Task: inverse folding
């Protein structure tokens, strides 16, 4: 949970998560949405991967990034509990 | 928002927020719930204050800590948007 919060403490990484809500993308497609070098985007993707918020899957020559729905759901539940919101209310 | 996520990336600070859900407390009362030095708790309270998740109010000789409900609500909304959950669903 610490890793997930740390991963979310950066605006670019939050933007990447928003972007992946619309569908899975490879690193180049993700990078094209940001005015930032590919190595920087690659670093952010690695932080998100380590926090398990995002998963990477090789498809042929490409690595496709997608949201890790299970971990995000668990994290959301833990977050809501922290804020005193009952999970069932969602 | 970065500060709030950083503040939440520590288990003790999350425990302090849970504790304050039950009511306002002074630093000594908060510290009594943790096996940790008062200066350490004081540091964690300062981080939470800087992130505006918690507010401190002097009452006579004491400083009373409470959740900053407005900021926490704003942060919760931003967080839910990030996870693609509609705010109205809560």
Result:
């Amino acid at each position: 949970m610490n890793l997930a919060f740390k991963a979310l403490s950066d605006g670019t990484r939050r933007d990447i998560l928003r972007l992946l809500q619309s569908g899975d993308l490879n690193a180049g497609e993700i990078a094209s949405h940001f005015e930032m070098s590919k190595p920087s985007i690659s670093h952010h993707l690695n932080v998100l991967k380590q926090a398990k918020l995002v998963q990477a899957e090789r498809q042929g020559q490409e690595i496709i990034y997608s949201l890790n729905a299970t971990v995000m759901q668990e994290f959301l539940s833990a977050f809501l509990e922290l804020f005193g919101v009952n999970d069932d209310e969602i």
